[in-house]
Design brief:
The chain is α/β, with parallel strands linked by helices. It has 3 domains: 5-128 and 167-232, Alpha-Beta Complex (Spore Coat Polysaccharide Biosynthesis Protein SpsA, Chain A), CATH 3.90.550; 134-161, no CATH class; 238-288. The protein has helices at 18-28, 47-54, 69-78, 99-108, 138-141, 146-150, 155-161, 185-191, 203-213, 238-255, 260-288; strands at residues 5-11, 34-41, 59-63, 84-88, 92-93, 112-120, 126-127, 130-131, 171-172, 175-176, 180-184, 217-228. A hairpin with a 5-residue loop joins strand 6 and strand 7 (126-127). The N and C termini lie far apart (53 Å).
């Protein structure tokens, strides 16, 4: 029988988190026929051996190099046979049948292009995972900014993070976290999949923007939830800091361009922010001796 749902999980040195993800997926996904595809981005920590030895029911794609999250998702989707494609991070954990209700929602509402569950931190607290589309103010009022940390209830941070709008009701939103989302295969094909030009960061924002531009809705569905361990997004690794800012620039070029002067000023601002973070992180490592 052809699976109704294809679950695509991208891994890179994920051997620590992946077992909990796959074990919980196997235990709790009971309401829908599904297949699981792991697209591994050239792991060196034994992730591939782990999958082959412990999870023979998983289809494994061995990628020879780590060319980024989006490219690996597309590889997994190309191998998928399901009517729906769910994308999960390897650091998520299910404690209920999350995927069947999401697929049922997409069947009921064919005008919806992306649906996502509520994400919870490991302690069970809410993880803000649906947002407004980013703009210039997002540089100052994003999740990790000093302003947001010092004044978490300021209106601009609240508007972007949707922290003042409640997370208890199914609703249309601008974008949802790529840690866990689902879309129909036909929508994936229509918008051309994930943009492989995003190595990491903002690829989910870009996907939701293109889905919206194609005339479909993006929906946050909090009556189903799973746990997500935030990790890479908080990393101070120079490579990831640079990747983040390249993604910001790519997103701006695709969706927010506004003339030569504004583009030049934006590029300079992004480069300056990147350099500032790299310098600050280097000082922290020097002071801490790491």
């Amino acid at each position: 029988m052809t699976a109704a749902l294809s679950v695509v999980i991208v891994t890179h040195n994920s051997s620590r988190d992946l077992p909990a993800c796959l074990d919980s997926l196997r235990e709790h996904t009971t309401g829908i026929e599904y297949e699981v595809i792991v697209a591994d981005n050239a792991s060196t920590d034994g992730t591939v051996d782990l999958v082959e030895q412990r999870y023979p029911w998983v289809r494994l794609i061995r990628r020879r190099e780590n060319s980024g999250l989006s490219a690996a998702i597309n590889d997994g989707a190309r191998a998928a046979a399901g009517e729906f494609i769910a994308v999960l991070n390897p650091d998520v954990r299910l404690e209920g049948d999350v995927l069947a209700p999401l697929a049922a929602y997409l069947r009921e509402y064919p005008d919806v292009g992306v649906v996502a569950p509520k994400l919870l931190n490991e302690d069970g607290s809410l993880q803000l995972s649906c947002r407004a589309f980013p703009g210039y103010s997002t540089v100052v009022f994003n999740r990790y900014s000093i302003v947001t940390k010092l004044f978490p209830r300021n209106p601009l941070s609240s508007r972007y993070l949707m922290s003042d709008s409640g997370h208890a009701t199914t609703r249309g939103v601008d974008w949802v976290s790529g840690a866990a989302l689902m879309l129909p295969r036909r929508v994936f094909d229509e918008v051309g999949g994930w943009d492989a030009g995003f190595f990491m960061f903002n690829e989910d924002v870009d996907l939701c923007r293109r889905v919206t531009n194609a005339g479909y809705g993006v929906v946050y569905k909090p009556d189903v939830s799973l746990f997500h361990k935030i990790g890479v997004s908080t990393s101070t690794s120079p490579r990831l800091v640079i990747a983040r800012h390249r993604s910001i620039w790519r997103y701006y070029r695709k969706h927010l361009r506004g003339g030569a002067v504004r583009d030049a000023a934006t590029a300079a601002g992004i480069a300056a922010r990147c350099a500032l973070l790299l310098g600050a992180n280097a000082v922290r490592r020097l002071v801490s001796g790491r």
